[in-house]
Design brief:
- Helix 8 (132-139) packs across helix 9 (145-152) and helix 12 (192-199) packs across helix 13.
- This protein folds into two domains: 46-156, no CATH class; 159-216, DNA polymerase, domain 1 (Orthogonal Bundle).
- It contains 13 helices and four strands.
- 50% of the residues lie in helices and 4% in strands.
Length: 218
């Protein structure tokens, strides 16, 4: 009779780690909220811009000329010269520059359509966010699942240049598979200046600035 086989503890540990890693990657990797049909003012074509309420040809041209917008505040500054608060809120229900959950000012948070001062306080209360799962869990204490999903469309968490997964990077608006490859190709990054230099080989200065707004080395 053959003796019973003993499991190698090292192999058992590897399986446990693999399972935990798979579960984590399936729930926490997305770092920019799923936008759905919410337009990005940095990427929308002129024809798309003029389909947004209150955006005429002149304002659409001003929006294009002001790119890139690296914050919601910058975009709001362009619109506020022409549109009142109610009109801008109607625009932001259709087109929005996502805010940095960890770095946005109170004023930028308040630009999110339907935002209240109480909810803006809750956004700030749970900083720093490390994943959108954390955001869903904490904000889900105050509003229902549908409202959490609506709010999530307007936010992102900066991705670490040296550790963000391919899936993380793909959530950046307008990101292509080729550009994800270039982000990973030059790791490890030691400075944002290095990032600008390397990625600047493939896209212009404005696009480098837009992409940089979604990443961090902190």
């Amino acid at each position: 009779m053959q003796p019973a086989c003993k499991e190698n503890p090292l192999n058992v540990w590897k399986v446990i780690v693999a399972v935990v890693s798979l579960a984590w990657s399936g729930t926490a990797w997305a770092q920019a909220g799923e936008r759905g049909d919410l337009l990005d003012p940095n990427l929308a074509a002129t024809g798309e811009l003029t389909l947004v309420p209150h955006i005429d040809d002149a304002l659409a041209s001003a929006i294009v000329a002001g790119r890139p917008y690296v914050s919601a505040g910058q975009f709001d500054a362009v619109l506020s010269g022409t549109l009142d608060r109610a009109q801008r809120e109607a625009v932001y229900a259709r087109m929005f520059r996502q805010i940095d959950l960890n770095g946005a000012s109170r004023d930028e948070i308040m630009v999110i359509p339907g935002m209240t001062r109480r909810m803006a306080h809750e956004f700030e209360e749970y900083r720093p966010y490390t994943s959108l799962d954390q955001f869903r869990r904490e904000i889900g204490k105050y509003v229902d699942e549908a409202e959490v999903a609506r709010l999530e469309r307007h936010v992102f968490i900066p991705m670490h240049l040296n550790t963000a997964s391919e899936a993380d990077l793909e959530t950046i608006p307008g990101m292509t598979g080729r550009m994800v490859h270039e982000f990973e190709e030059y790791r490890p990054y030691t400075s944002l200046e290095q990032f600008r230099r390397e990625i600047g080989k493939y896209v212009d200065e404005a696009e480098v600035a837009r992409l940089e707004s979604y990443v961090t080395l902190d």
